[in-house]
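ok trying again, last paste got cut off:
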Amino acid sequence: MEKSRIAVSGASGLVGSALVRSLRKDGHQVVRLVRRPARTGDEVTWDPKRQYVDVAGLGGCDAVVHLAGAGVGDHRWTPEYRREIRDSRVLGTAALAQAVASLDVPPRVFVSGSAVGYYGDTGDRPVDEDAPPGEGFLPGVCVEWEEAAAPAREAGVRTAYARTGLVVAREGGAWGRMFPLFKAGLGGRLGSGRQYWSFIALHDEVAALRHILDTDTLSGPVNLTAPEPVTNREVTAAMGRVLRRPTAFAVPTPVLRTVLGEMASDVLSSQRALPVRLLESGFSFAFPRIDDAIRAALR
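nice, full thing came through this time. structure:
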C-alpha cells in the first residue's frame, strides 16, 4: 500500500497497538479513535455506546480498521457483561460503518474485527470461511457483529471481517495470562485437552490485517488463524517444551465451570478454523506452527 491515512479503533489494545506501530513504522498516517475529546491531530472522538463518530475526522482516510470490543475473557459472564460484550461490538461497528458510508469520499476498505467464535464448537471438524455460524452466545454475537458492518458494504466500500483466533502474545489475551503460569511450572491442559485452538502469532495477525488492506480481492469473512490448529493438549506440550517447564497440572472440566461460569464453554469449545482465503490470496505465515508462535512471543 502506498503511504496512506488509516483510521484504527481499538488502537490501545493488544492487536491494535501492534498494528499502529507497524503502520507508522512504514510511514503511514494513523488516526486513532478515542473515547474522549481528541487532543491531537491524529485522534478522532467516538462513543460506541451512543453510536457517535466525529465523521469529519475520518475525512481523507484510505482505510478504516475496526478492532474495538470488550474483552471476552476479562470478566465472568454476568448478564450485564454479556450485554457489554455484545453492545461494544455491534453498536461500535454500526456507528463506524454508518460514518464510513456517510462520507462524500469513503475509504477504499473497511476491515471489521470478528472472531472464529462465529463457528461455535466444531469438534475436530475443520471449517473454512464458507461454514455456517454455530449456536450459542458467541456465535450469535459474531453474526450480529458482522451484520452491523452492512452500511459500509452497501455504500460500495470493500468490507472484510477479520475472524481472528487466539493471538499468541505475552502482552495480553489468553496467552498473556498463560505465560506466567507456565513459567512458574503451574501450566496444564484445560478439561479433556482435546479441544482445538485456532491460534495465530501476533506478528502474523498484524501482517494478515495489512494483507487484507493491500489485497483488493479480499472481502467478506477472512479467517486470521495459523494453517495448523492444535489441540489444547498440544498447546500445553508446546508451552512445556519451549519454556522447559513441567506441565503436569490439569484443570478438570467441573472446576473450570465452577470458576469461570458460562465463559468455561468458550475455553472448552473446539474451533478448528483454517485460513483458506488468506492462503489462496498469497499470504505467507512467518510462524505457522505453535512452537514457532510461542518462541516469537517470547522474543
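cool. The two ends are 27 Å apart (CA to CA). The longest strand covers residues 109-115.
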